[in-house]
Design brief:
The structure holds two protein chains of two kinds.
Chain A: H1 4-16, H2 37-50, H3 57-60, H4 66-77
Helix pairs in contact in A: 1-2, 1-4
Chain B: E1 6-9, H1 15-26, E2 30-35, H2 38-50, E3 56-59, H3 65-78, E4 84-87, H4 102-130, E5 133-138, H5 142-145, H6 151-171, E6 176-183, H7 189-192, H8 196-204, H9 214-224, E7 236-239
Helix pairs in contact in B: 1-9, 3-4, 4-6
The chains are: A mainly alpha, B alpha/beta.
Chain lengths: 78, 246
């Protein structure tokens, strides 16, 4: 079983169509990884499926970087 | 079609909505049609079953957040997420504006326009994920021409066309198309209520000299829902016998 960090990074790479090594922990989805607003919504949907959870819209809007996604999953699923 | 896509048609118990549901069923979609009442839903189930379709009728109040929430969940569980959505349900509460009550205004806005927000939003997740989707909003020639006594109705229909164009831009990158179909004077219960004098007056304005049939609207909607129509989006298609030429 890979770590939460690895799983999040893998999903980000798949959803945004970038290489996994480009998905740095500090990377911003929009500024660094070229995501548009619809990409960020779909990314949250993919995270919800991977971690079998529901992320409320008001929380989802705050998840703008890889680190914030990892932190959210750690805080809410650990 | 190898795997059957699910098509959701609101307001499908009679008139244009029923013709659309029957045509989409004939084209190979699994069709879920909605009506405001349980008896309406049963009637839809009956004609879909008679056509050999795996879908069914369901009672849905498009003016209610809770109802939309419950019914969309139930569709997803029973059939899978709809990849085709035809927003057809609509009401009229005609009155000249100087006499129009606040509830005549707000009922029409809520059922005809706010429902687009509710129902469309609930279907987007499935469509964006599938990288394929079709949304068709049934509007009216009145949205372009205006009509005495229908300021509320005309506002919702013109609004729906603007909504379609904005949503078409949002979803284009996911191969989801959003279009409007604007019927003119169609032979349904709604127009059968008119007096002979009103009817003759309307017919005089229509170059083709007759009412449209629900099946003629359904054929256009079904085309927009097909794979070959994938390059048409954000468009309003008028179908009115020449009564209004944009």
């Amino acid at each position: 079983m890979s770590s939460i960090e690895e799983r999040v990074k893998k999903i980000v790479a798949e959803q945004l169509g970038v290489k996994e090594e480009e998905v740095q922990t500090e990377a911003s989805f929009v500024e660094d990884l070229g995501a548009d607003s619809l990409d960020t919504v779909e990314l949250v949907m993919a995270l919800e499926e991977e971690f079998e959870t529901e992320i409320p819209d008001e929380e989802a809007e705050k998840i703008t970087t890889v680190k914030l996604a990892i932190d959210y999953i750690n805080d809410n699923l650990a | 079609m190898s795997e059957q896509k699910v098509a959701l048609v609101t307001g499908a118990s009679r008139g244009i909505g029923r013709a659309i549901a029957e045509k989409l069923a004939a084209d190979g979609f699994t069709v879920v049609g909605t009506a405001t009442s349980e008896s309406g839903a049963e009637a839809i189930s009956a004609y879909l079953q008679a056509a050999g379709n795996a879908g069914c009728g369901m009672a849905l109040d498009v003016a209610s957040d809770d109802s939309v929430d419950v019914v969309l969940k139930s569709i997803a569980e029973q059939f899978g997420a709809p990849l085709v959505l035809v927003n057809n349900a609509g009401i009229t509460r005609d009155n000249i504006l100087m006499r129009m009550k606040a509830d005549e205004w707000s009922d029409v806005i809520n059922t005809n326009l706010n429902a687009l927000y509710r129902v469309s939003k609930a279907c987007l997740r499935g469509m964006t994920k599938a990288r394929w989707g079709r949304i068709v909003n049934i509007t009216s020639v009145v949205g372009s021409m205006g009509n005495i006594g229908q300021s509320n109705y005309a506002a919702t229909k013109a609004g729906a066309e603007g909504f379609s164009r904005a949503l078409a831009r949002e979803l284009g990158s996911r191969s989801v198309t959003v279009n409007s179909v604007a019927p003119g004077f169609i032979d349904t219960d709604m127009t059968r209520e008119l007096s002979d004098a009103q009817r003759d007056l309307m017919l005089g304005q229509i170059p083709l000299g007759r009412l449209g049939q629900p099946e003629e609207i359904a054929a256009l909607v079904a085309f927009l829902c097909s794979d070959v129509a994938g390059y048409i989006t954000g468009e309003t298609l008028h179908i009115n016998g020449g009564m209004y030429m944009a």
